[in-house]
Amino acid sequence: MCGYRSRDNTTYYLHYHKYFKHGIPLPKGWTAYTCDLCGKELYTKFQLKDHKRTHAEKTPFVCELCGAGFQSRSNLHSHVLHRHKEEKKHSCNGCDRTFKTRTQLAVHERTHTGVRPFSCPQCTYRSTTRGNMRLHLVNRHKMPNTVARDIMRDMRPDVDLSLKPLWQQVASDTGELVLG
């Protein structure tokens, strides 16, 4: 029909793709979840719950530093951590950059290791982050953002993320690069 293939070669995503993109009915017993506020159809209860938050006006979790409101405590915590935490205590040993979180440092270190742990299910493209892979799926393969987001939520890195950066692979006695 259009060449769409699911990343795991199962028919699960294919059925929803056909329904949302081509109007082909879902198999018997399958359902799309419809937002009662705007009519948007989603294919998991989790997506529907997540989507409904976009309609919520209540933001009971308020940042004491700037007054921004959030719908969940975890979103507030993430906001404070990334917007207001001044100290950048995670330093890269390969360059002079510092980061607020260990996760940001780990992602940055991939620029030194060359590790691209996320493989596109439809072509040979590889990415350093889930976010970049999601953008690739949406822009290159014209995948709906909701489908790409769900694929990325389930995607696991296909390489060992504990691979040491190049500067940590140098033998201390010879100064030569040790490749494994």
TrEMBL record:
GO CC, any one term: nucleus
- The protein's predominant localisation is nucleus
Task: Kindly give the InterPro entries that the UniProt entry links to this protein.
Answer: Znf_C2H2_sf (IPR036236), Znf_C2H2_type (IPR013087)
Q: Does the keyword Zinc-finger apply?
A: yes
Q: What is this protein called?
A: C2H2-type domain-containing protein
Q: Pfam families given for it?
A: zf-C2H2, zf-met
Outline the extent of the C2H2-type domain: 33-60, 61-89, 90-117
Top-level taxon:
Eukaryota
Keyword Transmembrane helix tagged? no
The GO terms describing molecular function are: zinc ion binding
Coiled-coil regions in this chain? none
**PROSITE patterns per the UniProt record, alphabetical:** ZINC_FINGER_C2H2_1, ZINC_FINGER_C2H2_2
Question: Where is this protein localized, as stated in its record?
Answer: Nucleus
* Keywords assigned by UniProt, alphabetized: Metal-binding, Nucleus, Repeat, Transcription, Transcription regulation, Zinc, Zinc-finger
